[in-house]
Design a protein that fits this description.
Elements: E1 4-12, E2 15-16, H1 26-41, E3 50-54, H2 66-73, E4 82-85, H3 91-104, E5 110-118, H4 135-138, H5 146-156, H6 161-180, E6 188-189, E7 191-194, E8 200-203, H7 215-218, E9 240-250, H8 251-256, E10 263-272, H9 281-293, E11 302-305, H10 311-320, H11 333-336, H12 343-358, E12 362-369, E13 373-381
Parallel strand pairs: 1-6, 3-4, 3-5, 11-12
Antiparallel strand pairs: 1-9, 1-10, 2-9, 5-9, 7-8, 10-13, 12-13
Helix pairs in contact: 1-2, 3-12, 9-10
Length: 383
Amino acid sequence: MTEVVIVDGVRTAIGRRKGAFSEYRPDELAAIVLDELVKRAGVDKADVDDVILGCVTQIGEQSGNIARTSALIAGFPIHVPGVTIDRQCGSSQQAVHFGAQAIASGDMDIVIAGGVESMTREPMFSNVGNTKVSPKLSEKYEIINQGLSSERMVEKWNLTREELDKYSSESHIKAFEAIEKGHFEKEIIPVDVLQADGTITSCKIDEGPRAGSTVEVLSGLKPVFDENGVITAGNASQMSDGASAVLLMSRKKADELGLKPKARIIARSVTGSDPTLMLTGPIEATKKVLLKAGLSIEDMDTYEVNEAFAQVPLVWLHETGANPEKLNPDGGAIALGHPLGATGTKLLVTMLHRLERTGGRYGLLAICEGMGMANATIIERIE
């Protein structure tokens, strides 16, 4: 089967909800990423076979196939198509999988996979409105929100509020250290933002990390979903705005164009999990992708497991036996934010640059998804 490589990857900084990108249309934000990605790689826009973007809240400015409209805004010729997909929090990771599968099968040579989400301009669940769950679904499964699912996970794995808040505090510490050391500088595209006073500022640093997010401070926050529970705004991911993308290519095409790819995609997996407990999917997705790759968790040099809620990576660590030191070493969504449709490739871009910076070989990415699903991806850095 055709070898699939990642030639490059970029992202915007991640803006807080109602923050730096609050006045920025998501289709225009995604267009900046698409334009910069091909410029960095030195690829002709006309040679791209497809643009696949993840976006969860497909309403308003994010409706009407934002992958297509963003590509047109970015100046891609009209023959380059685009498609928008929703696999919840793993949407852009699934975009990578779909793009890689198209290339591996020989159907395409060059695909851009990424995602975008403005949780400011198109709030989460605004596409759902007053729609209720089908009785035919609720007869089969207990359908609850992710917050209550999180409370049940915490109870099942006997986690304490202190453990959740400690993990969350460490996410902020790691994120600040990564920013200070310049770990994200190469992957972030500076975006000029028009301020209310008419001035223009360049947004090039993630807005999410909050100074003073100590265990003591976090422990003072009230539970959000259950007054007797432990899930708070402090140990959950932040609502955010942002865009990200990677350029996928067959190794043959990369060689033909004289490009040096950064990594190859070794294996992909996707799985369904209990739609009530919902957020346990990364455990089985990880086992599945490791089996496909013929590798073990010990072979991985780093892993990104999305911090939808603090218990997700903690339970994943417990069930996989993974090394905590290798997990989200630059912080995660609790500190850096979680722009739903963009998160998958945002994390992939960060992991890609980390492997390049540290000289690591293998990286694993896993993301839990609404209604009980998960994707996992293993990449190998190319020397």
